[in-house]
Amino acid sequence: MTHTDLEIDADLIRDLLREQHPDLAELPLELGARGWDNQLWRLGDDLAVRLPWATDSADELLRKEYAWVPGLAAGLPLPIPVPQRLGEPAERFPRPWIVTTWVPGAPADRAPVTRGAEAARALAEFLTALHRPAPEGAPAGRGRGGPLAVHTKGFAAQLTEATERGLVADPDAVRAVWDDAAAAPAWVGPPVWLHGDLHPANILTADGTFCGVIDFGDLCVGDPACDLSAAWLLLPDGGVDAFHDAYEREVDDAMLRRARGWAMAKALVGMLIGEAGVHGRPGGKASWGPPGRAALERLVATA
Q: Which of 97, 239, 276, 303 fits a disulfide with 51 by CB distance 3.0 to 4.6 angstroms?
């Protein structure tokens, strides 16, 4: 993470709105969250402002969302933040920013699913609708949705770190899940739309089930196994099978193996970020640890 030197506060955002979108400038404004790439501020009852703050790549991701997400939103069964306005770089804030719709709910890393069967159906219906063929020119991912094996070196480094920090008791069992996934035949179907970053902080819950999906910065095209990995990270025990029963796209054994590999990689990342949060290190989020550990245990247990 490369935090911006610019201080983002309500006064700055109001100034930007007055300059570029004055009809929105006097709506109530409050900080919603500081994410990995962007800060999120709630604007009135129905809107949000997202501004890049922590990574150099956030500018490009916001522009991609503005260009592509509106065309996808109408066909999805769960609410998503739909870009409404684009903010251009200005003297006080020399980066792009966007105004989107506000999606109510609590992130699943803080409010986990309790109604597993309903959540499994909701996730399956969402991904069935999203995983449709993408048009020519649709964006490629930042390493998401492509061949899994190219990430083996990075996975090995994360596994070593997690083991050294005492987070993984049986690294051989974890590595076996990854090796099987990386050896699975590659995706040969047409590129389909992917969310690309489905983890517990990017899906919202209410009343024990899913009520929205956020952060489409990694929207891309590729192998649906990348998104199917979410079932292991988001659903309670027993939810993965219910998800696969409800998902209406074709899934073969190779795709399931690749999905397990993506899930294991995301579980390790979640555990490392969670451990960093517990110890107050930069970039850490303590709430990411428990769902990552639960996913890892489920994956090893069913290997």
A: 97
pLDDT at 105 over 50: yes
SS3 63: helix
Q: Which residues contact 136 (CB under 8 A, 6 or more apart)?
A: none
Q: Please say whether the beta carbons of 260 and 299 come within 8 A.
A: yes
Q: Is the pLDDT reported for residue 58 higher than 50?
A: yes
**For the whole model, what pTM was predicted?**
0.94
3-state secondary structure of 104: coil
CB neighbourhood size of 178 (10 A): 23
Q: Cα torsion at 146, 148, 298, 283 (round to 10°)?
A: -80
Cα 3 from Cα 112, distance rounded (Å): 29
Question: At residue 245, what is the residue type?
Answer: D
Taking the C-alpha atoms of residue 116 and residue 98, their distance in angstroms, rounded to an integer, is 34
Give the CB-side neighbour count of residue 71, counting CA atoms within 13 A: 11
What is the 8-class DSSP label of residue 212? E
206 CB contacts (<8 Å, ≥6 apart)? 104, 105, 106
Is the distance from CB of 219 to CB of 138 less than 8 angstroms?
Answer: no
| 124-135 average pLDDT score | 97
- Condensed to tens digits (0 to 9), the pLDDT of residues 85-103 reads 999 999 999 999 999 999 9
Give the residue-averaged pLDDT of 201-214.
Answer: 97
Alpha-carbon gap, residue 225 to 16, rounded angstroms: 40
The pLDDT assigned to 5 comes to 63
Closest C-alpha to 79, from 218, 203, 201 = 203
**What's the mean pLDDT when you consider all of the chain?**
94
Radius of gyration over every alpha carbon of the chain, rounded to an integer in angstroms? 19
pLDDT tens for each residue of 41-52: 999 999 999 999
At 217 the three-state DSSP class reads: coil
The structure tokens listed for 26 are 């006097």
Closest alpha carbon to 47 in 103, 124, 101:
101
